[in-house]
UniProtKB/TrEMBL annotation, chain B:
<keyword id="KW-0472">Membrane</keyword>
<dbReference type="Pfam" id="PF13715">
    <property type="entry name" value="CarbopepD_reg_2"/>
</dbReference>
<keyword id="KW-0813">Transport</keyword>
<feature type="signal peptide">
    <location>
        <begin position="1"/>
        <end position="17"/>
    </location>
</feature>
<protein>
    <submittedName>
        <fullName>TonB-dependent receptor</fullName>
    </submittedName>
</protein>
<keyword id="KW-0998">Cell outer membrane</keyword>
<dbReference type="InterPro" id="IPR000531">
    <property type="entry name" value="Beta-barrel_TonB"/>
</dbReference>
<dbReference type="InterPro" id="IPR039426">
    <property type="entry name" value="TonB-dep_rcpt-like"/>
</dbReference>
<keyword id="KW-0732">Signal</keyword>
<feature type="domain" description="TonB-dependent receptor-like beta-barrel">
    <location>
        <begin position="297"/>
        <end position="702"/>
    </location>
</feature>
<keyword id="KW-0812">Transmembrane</keyword>
<keyword id="KW-0675">Receptor</keyword>
<dbReference type="InterPro" id="IPR036942">
    <property type="entry name" value="Beta-barrel_TonB_sf"/>
</dbReference>
<feature type="domain" description="TonB-dependent receptor plug">
    <location>
        <begin position="118"/>
        <end position="220"/>
    </location>
</feature>
<keyword id="KW-1134">Transmembrane beta strand</keyword>
<dbReference type="GO" id="GO:0009279">
    <property type="term" value="C:cell outer membrane"/>
</dbReference>
<dbReference type="InterPro" id="IPR037066">
    <property type="entry name" value="Plug_dom_sf"/>
</dbReference>
Length: 124, 744
């Protein structure tokens, strides 16, 4: 009986581990922005969240690709950090104050075209 | 107890068994057809639960009460968030994130790119810049770049020596795709063994380099990236001829064998068989030469698994003959009929590179490099003989990752190197084998905006240099837009190969004196120096066109150096440094696109390089204290098919140069204390007919400036006063050339 219980507990334990949080979770979602300066602002905000290991925002597709430790953070936390520096996501819009703080050439709400050619942060 | 068990038992199944959300993700279309999107991400907001859609766009994801926001995302489409409060079927159409299919934005890429964000002071020279001069080989690839000075260092072979921060190339680490290349036996001529067309780009790092590539770099690093089979043209042919009778042919053949494998065959040949003696000193102004250089590259790339690899083999045979006109090796070698010299080199290189990027972790990778080379040079200079055989093995294993996030990166690894030297100097045998193993760690930090820092250290154990520690530090700070301050500090050390690096001394009547102290490298100690410097760059827009201003100052302080003393014309003396030896260099540069198609670069350079010789602390001989450089490039607007004209003009002004003392010679074999300053001009005009075909003509040393007394004692080459080592200017005059480039 004892052995059975241990076996059952062991099985359960394994299945719980299977549900454990991924230390290197890949995730992609959209963040509004338009140029190189936005890219730097968005990536910096995302990397500023504890648990985010990697963040790359692609200008033409507006997709932010992340690798994060799910034990330390979740996507909402990251989206809040991005909204705080003035960039909208599907779920969270930046406050007017935060949006007003972005550089005049980054005003993506008026015109969200890919403006990287005019505003290069030459990251070489 | 039983109840507890049952509850526990059920918990994991709650999330995975009964309750699921199933559905299909589709591409939006006008008729709402069911076009399934495979590979879309479906996950619960803020949860660890996620899945991907199958081939037909269907998915199934466990449902739990804790989460009610289901996010569906796919690259190239707008992500959507659905609110779901109960397990159910979901049919969802994703809209493309931009209705435009493709927008191509082209930006003019500068031919010379200065780093702005990296902690190190790096200038990248890309292929467009390399086309500005005919660049027969790597040693000539720096003529349009002020960071590197090109000097004429010996009257016989006309080989150009490069200098950085006032120090000659042995103090530079020269690498080919990050594998140390021009060193040891190949130090004197190695740069001429890489044909210009093979070069894809060059990265010039001023000051101490990274610890990843070893401990040898003192004044800087030059890395050459070669053409890659995957990206080079399938067929490329370049022919070149100059009025001095030099002919060159370069052929590249590249092919894609599969979606992962590519291979390239690069063949270079050059020869000069006409004797040129424009200054009538009875000595050839340029060597008779013949070179065959063949390289085969293999490239493997698998984006799915993250593996990349390169495999290279290269064979080179180079023959030079110099000396008096009419010298015939078969009848005149080792006789006093005529003075002559032959330098024959045979070299084999093989290298392999393996890289692995973790598919799920774009910031983590492994790299492994290994190379083998065998370099054999047999040469004689009049009655002096010099043979060197150098076998070299190098390997480096590297791991890149992050600490926490990508603001904090690190590189760490181990390296191993072996060098076996076998030299015969006028009948005396010198053999030496060097073995070293080392481990390195380099941390880099960037706050993504104003500050970046790289701090590295390595520890090596070397059978001749002992056990030592090499720290390197780089900092970058950007206080305002487009302005960057940089600082660097580093230690470097090396075993000087005194004969290979100073081969020109054999072409003279000087006696060679080794005043060693019993150290274990030819009786000398290792060379050791510290290099530190600061730089500032400011980019600006003037008349809406880009420009940049930069100033940098570097200092190298030698703790020990093998001092080569030429101050007595009868001899050349080698000794360990006893006193001070330093090199200060200041460079001020201003570049601007003054008109839409006209680029102007100007630079002023000041060198204060002094060493304690036997006769006191003296300025380094044969080096101009002041230099001024200007390069102007003009291109017409390219037409649809790429047709355009390109014009390029380079002007170099060199101040006076101190000459090694010849006071001890009889009056007719004396030179002044200083050589006057002079200027040089080069130009090139390229007519591009289409993207496939272009023709260029050009001229070097247009003003025909020459040094007439380059060979001292040319009238009596077997006498006591014969010396070809004091060269401060070109020996051959104006040189006109033409060539073509053809690619499919």
């Amino acid at each position: 009986m004892m052995i059975k219980r241990i076996a059952i507990l062991a099985v359960m334990f394994v299945s719980v581990v299977g549900m454990a949080q991924d230390k290197n979770k890949k995730m992609t979602f959209e963040v509004d922005g338009k140029c190189e300066m936005c890219k730097m602002r968005i990536e910096k905000a995302a990397l500023g969240v504890t648990g985010v290991k990697y963040a790359t925002w692609d200008i033409p597709t507006h997709q932010l690709s992340l690798v994060m430790d799910e034990g330390k953070t979740n996507s909402m936390e990251i989206k809040s950090a991005i909204a705080a520096v003035g960039h909208d996501t599907k779920e969270l819009k930046a406050t007017q104050e935060a949006y007003d703080a972005v550089h005049p050439c980054c005003k993506y709400r008026e015109d969200n075209t890919d403006d990287s050619a005019n505003h290069k942060k030459d990251n070489r | 107890m039983r109840n507890f068990l049952i509850i526990l038992f059920c918990l994991p199944f709650l999330a995975s068994a009964q309750d699921t959300v199933e559905g299909m993700v589709m591409e939006s279309n006008p008729d709402n057809k069911h076009l399934g999107l495979p590979g879309a991400n479906v996950y619960w907001e803020g949860s660890p639960i996620g899945t991907m859609t199958k081939e037909d766009g269907t998915f199934s994801i466990p449902y739990s009460k804790e989460y009610n926001k289901l996010i569906i995302s796919f690259v190239g489409f707008k992500s959507d968030t659905l609110t779901i409060d109960e397990p159910k079927m979901v049919h969802h159409w994703l809209k493309p994130s931009n209705e435009l299919d493709e927008v191509v934005v082209e930006q003019k890429k500068e031919a010379v790119q200065k780093t702005f964000f990296s902690a190190q002071n790096v200038v990248t020279v890309n292929s467009a810049e390399l086309l500005k001069a005919a660049c027969c080989n790597l040693s000539e690839s720096f003529e349009t770049n002020p960071a590197i000075d090109v000097n004429f260092n010996d009257a016989l072979t006309g080989t150009k020596q490069i200098e950085m921060l006032g120090l000659t190339s042995p103090y530079l680490l020269i690498t080919q795709e990050n594998i140390p290349m021009v060193r040891g036996a190949s130090q004197a001529f190695g740069l001429t063994f890489t044909p210009g067309t093979w070069v894809e780009s060059i990265q010039i790092t001023k000051g101490a380099g990274s610890v990843v590539n070893g401990y040898e770099s003192i004044s800087g690093q030059i890395n050459t990236e070669l053409q890659k089979p995957l990206t080079d043209a399938p067929i490329f042919v370049n022919g070149y001829a100059n009025l001095n009778g030099r002919l060159e042919l370069n052929t590249h053949l590249n092919t894609k064998l599969s979606d992962k494998w590519s291979t390239g065959l690069f063949v270079h040949g050059n020869r000069r068989d006409s004797e040129v003696d424009n200054n009538d000193d009875n000595f050839l102004d340029m060597p008779l030469s013949n070179q065959v250089n063949i390289m085969n590259r293999w490239q493997y790339q698998n984006p799915e698994t993250g593996w990349v690899s390169f495999f290279n083999v290269r064979y080179l045979n180079d023959e030079k003959q110099v000396g008096e006109t009419g010298f015939n090796p078969e009848t005149d070698k080792f006789t006093t009929n005529a003075w002559g010299s032959e330098i024959d080199t045979e070299r084999f290189d093989g290298s392999v590179k393996l890289g692995y990027v973790f598919p799920d972790l774009p910031f983590q990778s492994f790299g492994f490099q290994a190379s083998y080379s065998h370099h054999a040079q047999d040469s004689y200079f009049g009655f002096n003989t010099y043979d060197i055989d150098h076998e070299s093995v190098y390997s480096n294993l590297l791991f890149n990752s992050i600490i926490g996030n990508t603001k904090h990166k690190f590189k760490t690894g181990i390296s191993f190197a072996y060098d076996g030297y076998d030299e015969l100097v006028n009948g005396t045998i010198f053999t030496r084998s060097d073995r070293s193993a080392g481990a390195f760690f380099e941390y880099s930090y960037t706050n993504l905006e104003k500050l970046s820092l790289t701090a590295g250290a390595r520890f090596d154990t070397h059978n001749r240099l002992g056990n030592f520690f090499t720290p390197r530090l780089h900092l970058r700070y950007t206080p305002w837009e487009n302005g960057s301050f940089r600082g660097s500090f580093g230690l470097g050390r090396r075993a000087a190969n005194i004969f290979a690096e100073n081969q020109r001394m054999f072409a003279s009547s000087r006696t060679i004196q080794l005043n060693g102290n019993g150290g274990n490298i030819y009786g000398f100690d290792a060379e050791k120096a510290v290099n530190y410097g600061v730089s500032f760059i400011q980019k600006f827009k003037l008349f809406d066109r880009p420009g940049d201003f930069s100033v940098d100052f570097y200092r190298t302080d030698f703790e020990n150096q093998i001092v080569v003393d030429w101050e007595n014309p009868r001899e050349v003396v080698f000794s360990n440094l006893d006193g001070d030896s330093y090199a200060n260099s200041l460079q001020v540069e201003l570049n601007h696109r003054v008109l839409p198609n006209v680029e102007v670069r100007t630079a002023y350079k000041f060198y204060d390089v002094k060493t304690e010789y036997q006769t006191g602390l003296l300025q380094k001989p044969l080096q101009a204290k002041h230099r001024f450089f200007t390069n102007i490039g003009y291109n017409t607007e390219p037409k649809e098919n790429g047709a355009q004209w390109r014009f390029d003009y380079t002007f170099n002004l060199l101040g006076e140069q101190r000459l090694p003392s010849t006071a001890a010679n009889p009056a007719e074999y004396r030179l002044g204390d200083f050589a006057d300053g002079y200027s040089l001009m080069n130009t090139q005009i390229t007519k591009v007919f289409s993207n496939k075909f272009e023709v260029y003509v050009g001229g070097e040393n247009l003003t025909n400036f020459r040094q007439y007394n380059a060979v001292l004692g040319a009238d009596d080459p077997f006498g006591d006063y014969f010396d070809t080592t004091i060269v401060y200017a070109p020996i051959f005059g104006r040189m006109l050339y033409m060539g073509f480039r053809f690619k499919i």
